[in-house]
Amino acid sequence: MRTTTVVIGAGHSGLATSRFLTQRAIEHVVLDRGEIANSWRTQRWDSLRLLTPNWLSRLPGFAYDGLDPDGFMTVPEVIAFIERYAALVEAPVRTGTTVTDVSAIVGGYRVTTDRGTWEAPTVVLASGGFNLPNVPALAAAVPSSVTTINAASYRRPDQLPDGAVLVVGASATGIQLADELQRSGRPVTLSVGEHVRMPRAYRGRDIMWWMTAAGILDERYDEVDDVVRARNVPSPQLVGTPDRSTRDLNALTDIGVALVGRLSEVRDGVALFSGALRNKCALADLKLGRLLDTFDAWALASGLDRDVAPPHRPAPTRVPDAPRLALDLRSGEIASIVWATGFRPDYSWLSVPVLDRKGRLRHEGGVVTGAPGMYAVGLNVLRRRKSSFIHGAEDDARELTDHLAAHLGARCA
Questions:
Q1: Fewer CB within 10 Å: N-end or C-end of the chain?
Q2: What element of type H or E holds 402?
Q3: pLDDT tens per residue, range 101-122
Q4: Cα 279 to chain center, whole Å?
């Protein structure tokens, strides 16, 4: 089968791209191994809500129109939102179609699937950057007596045995799971490394309002000082809850969660933790202060300072005087471990040499390096800081579709 563009992935980024391809009358097909919004169906825990408020949920020509604009969508609501969008734009989606290989051929690419083969001059990788759990190699040294699970497989507390839980990782996922597990009656120890502290609200407005209004989320990849680092910074400690509360390390210690440093090694069944917990927390507090300073300066310069509450600063992160540096996993004290250590993309099907030595896609703002006609959408800080959010898909997809159309035009010239 031949077409002009093959889009791999029927999540919000792939569908946004499909919308712009349709507007330009570019023939295309959207392939997905599962259903529309597949990762939301198969890799999310039951209680998860979006980190962004509903008023910020939008895609090209489509926006949240429910009764709770300041709330946060649940997983079923997100799936329904994306399904509605796919129907609205009449995206040519082929579900249940697993891509097994993408190879370069003369004039473009061959996309092989379990349901046929497509050839096209252009390909858009819209499978996202959160396909596989990024479990550290040291997990192999955990004693078999300890139940282990990664964040992609976790659904609810009753999957785990009774007893204490070690949650490894303190980004958005780790914070949420530590909170849920502690409230389920399972004592939680949270292993904390580098993290980004962020309150749910500041000066009476949601933090995402500030990030949007002050232009931070619109900062382009070529304006960021160190874009490689920006793309690998942990997700902020931000939780979408009905009560719009802040769930940071202080909130967790208030309900009894114990903090330890970054898990550095498992030796002879003993988990060893870094002694730099205080420094990591102090650095996160410092960066939060700088962010809030930026908001305050913007409010003053824009004339909105009088329309919001007065400036304030959250209390510093409370760190135990002597956090534990070791836990004997053979003793039975820890019944289970949850790996909240992030995700990574799956490019096992990509036979075009476009990955670096760490397996990351080489690209310039979504234009894949060394592969004319190949593009990527939906990755962290792809073209802007908002790229991985639902509302960030529109600008990126529009600009990359423009580039794709110019590429096609140049081929025909």
A1: C
A2: helix 393-412
A3: 999 999 999 999 999 999 999 9
A4: 25
Closest CA to 73 of 58, 51, 45: 51
CB contact at 8 A, 82 and 40:
yes
Q: May I ask the CATH class of domain 5-131+345-412? A: alpha beta
CB-CB contact of 320 with 257 (8 Å): no
Q: Taking each helix axis as running N to C, give the angle between helix 12-23 and helix 393-412, from 0 to 180 degrees, rounded to the nearest 10.
A: 50
Q: At 264, which helix (H) or strand (E)?
A: strand 263-267
Which candidate, 336, 394, 74, places its Cα nearest to that of 181? 336
In the prediction, which pLDDT does 130 show?
85
10 Å CB burial of residue 276 (0-12, 13-18, 19+) is: middle
Instruction: Tell which residue, 378, 379, 336, has the closest CA to residue 154.
Output: 336
Task: In whole angstroms, give the CA distance from residue 374 to residue 109.
Answer: 9
CA-CA distance, 406 to 409, in Å (whole number)? 5
The amino acid that residue 260 corresponds to is V
In angstroms, how far is the first alpha carbon of the chain from the final one?
A: 24
- Contact 377/397 with Cβ under 8 angstroms? yes
HSE-CB at 251 with a 13 A cutoff on CA atoms is 19
Mean per-residue pLDDT, 179-207: 97
Helix (H) or strand (E) holding 7: strand 5-8
The domain made up of 135-339 has a fold known as FAD/NAD(P)-binding domain (3.50.50)
How many whole angstroms separate alpha carbon 307 and alpha carbon 370? Answer: 50
CA 92 and chain centroid, separation:
26
Query: Between β-strands 164-168 and 334-339, what pairing exists: parallel, antiparallel or unpaired?
Result: parallel
DSSP for 230-281, please give it. HTTSPPPB----TT----SHHHHHHTTPEEE--EEEEETTEEEE-S-HHHHH
Give the pLDDT band (50/70/90) at residue 367.
very high
222: phi > 0 → left, psi -120 to 50 → alpha, else beta; which? alpha
Distance CA 79, CA 346 (A): 22
> Given the structure tokens 């090694």, which residue do they identify?
265
Q: Which of 263, 267, 325 is closest to 143 using CA atoms?
A: 267
Q: Where in the chain is the domain with CATH 3.50.50.60?
A: 5-131+345-412, 135-339
Asked if 37 and 62 touch (Cβ cutoff 8 Å), the reply is no
